[in-house]
């Protein structure tokens, strides 16, 4: 079952199944021996930063519709990103025809322990309603 991006909550488990469109992609950089690049992706409910690794950097372009299976939404260094991880899979399933919104950006939310459920996280505050790395489209 596909999860809307607005329902993402940071977790250390590969449990995200979602479909979204890539809006923008940053320049590749090196992280150790691996190439990485950050992208902005969105669906009809929210947007999020999507971390691409290795060959994924060349495999996807702006306008691609991507299906993520068993992905993970967690912190990578200090950035909250969605990624396939070692157990997940990202694949291109279409191009250009998908409704999306740019706000809220789930990577721009500060999370804190939920007082009612200590093992869960809840929204503490919104850092920015949109991506600070990829400014909103005109």
Question: In words, what does this structure look like?
Answer:
Helices cover about 5% and strands about 50% of the residues. It is globular and about 45 Å long. The model has no long low-confidence stretch (mean pLDDT about 85). The relative contact order is 0.23. The chain has one helix at about 55-60, and strands at about 15-25, 30, 35-40, 45-55, 65-75, 80-85, 90-95, 110-115, 115-125. The N and C termini lie far apart (about 35 Å). The protein is built from one helix and nine strands, in the order ββββαβββββ. It is an all-beta fold and about 140 residues long. The longest helix is centred in the middle third of the chain and has 4 residues, at about 55-60. The strands form two sheets. It has a five-stranded mixed barrel. A two-stranded antiparallel sheet has the order 8-9. GO terms for molecular function: DNA binding. This is SOSS complex subunit B homolog. It comes from Acorus calamus (Sweet flag).
